[in-house]
Give the backbone structure.
Amino acid sequence: MHSDSFSIGVVGAGFSGALLAVHLLHRCRPGDRVYLIEKRAGFGRGLAYSTVNQNHLLNVRAGNMSAFQDRPDHFVEWLRRQRSESSDPPVDSDSFVSRRLYGTYVRSLLCDELWSGGKGTNLYLVPDQGVALHEAPDGVSLVVAGGRCYRLDAVVFAAGNMPPDRNEGAYFGNPWDPAAIAGIPKHSPVLLIGTGLTMVDIVLSLLDAQHRGPIRAISRRGLLPQVHRTARPLDLAAWDLPRTTSITRLAHWVRSRVREAAADGWDWRSVVDGLRPHLQDLWRRLSLEERRRFLRHLRPWWDVHRHRMAPVVAEQIQAAMTRGQLSIGACRVVDMAPSDSQVRITLRPRHGDVETAEYARVINCSGPETDYRACDDPLINDLLRRGFARPDPLGLGLQVSEQGALLSSDGKASSRLFALGPVTRGSFWEIVAVPDIRMHCARLAAYLETSVRERNRAEPSVRRQRGIISSPPEERLANAVPPLLRPTAKGA
Ligand SMILES: Cc1cc2nc3c(=O)[nH]c(=O)nc-3n(C[C@H](O)[C@H](O)[C@H](O)COP(=O)(O)OP(=O)(O)OC[C@H]3O[C@@H](n4cnc5c(N)ncnc54)[C@H](O)[C@@H]3O)c2cc1C
């Protein structure tokens, strides 16, 4: 082993953790170790790409879903290779393919590193849940639920989208729990709380399960996501944007830019997509109070324009609305009493009188839990309790530095603990989708390699044992590949 070899742990193997591991493996030399720790069955899918429903499509065109920013055609080329061996219809960069298939792509990236890249001896897959972390000057100890403790140079927290976890009787707080849509009497009414893309997924799942009863979806404003249309992003440079840090003035600017663009024959989508590369900078410039105002007043409108439905999905939603099976409305939940067979719920419509009704199932579709102060995850609780991390004050994950280092309770950036992906939403805002996460993965891998190697060279005496320091022999990937990362059947 070289004096500067590294051992880096990545907690969470969804898109963020898996892609970071791929970038780290690219940089590995013999003796380097990347530990990828995942609590759910299967590495590389995460919450977003684990769905088994083939009608759950990506909400981004294939042409924007390459895992590598500098190889924009990577995903489309992978898709073409898959399709050339099958009778499925051809795809191009404008296609919206299934999320299941995208998960298979992410897994194939890890497989490529192992089989073609020869990095099998550098990767350690740990099918377990990270439950505690301790940062000391000479390294980080990561404890997993199975009881093992790993001693590492650095750990990246890529735990992604936390499903809300409160289910009670016929009320499902977690819409991604497969039980959420199981066992509903076919003709009974269902209520969905939330009208965004999660609601859209659940409606599709209910329709696929031949649900015939009424489906009502509610949110405070009752806004439905807009639909994708072919529209090239406007080429906006940083100096085209106003220097203001007022969210009201920014909103005025966006509206007037949309009007100007429309006068020149451009679609509003071109303005929204053209703004996207600048959103992290814009967000970081805003004060806490301005961010709060955005969340309170503008977010619902921004979200439905920014997170759009694939046209074929929109057609199914529209058809369900036209035949009167699906209704979307603006309501607040006043009271809810779940029992095993139904939920009695009182709603206050935005325009109208308070109403009480019974639903066979109520499913929360308001999106992942982002307020880590309220969540039940042992690792997050441990990080917060020990002061190794601090929650975003607006309930948007954990606070990080520009580099992605976790900020401790006293605001100091860690040199060994990092976070990646949606966990860092409070610091970057536009960091929940592939086109943004992939940039951070590449950047963080480069930073970690350089900084860890430099430190290990400078302080060889500090480097004590690395790897597993307690309990039975670890699963080397070479032995563990078949069950953990077996390439799946096409599209499976
Ligand atoms: C339903 C849904 C659909 C989406 N669709 C798209 C899309 O079409 N296009 C797009 O660009 N973006 C989409 N997104 C955005 C999504 O956030 C990103 O694309 C990306 O999947 C985020 O990956 P992640 O690895 O950060 O998070 P996740 O996918 O949530 O993965 C995190 C992983 O960490 C694991 N984990 C958490 N805690 C621990 C622990 N303590 N120990 C071990 N493992 C742990 C979890 O089990 C999970 O597998 C979607 C998001 C959702 C929720």
User: Anything to note?
Assistant: The CA atoms of residues 61 and 96 lie 5 Å apart. The longest helix spans residues 434-458. The radius of gyration is 23 Å. The chain has three domains: 7-56+98-162+370-485, 167-226+308-364, 238-306.
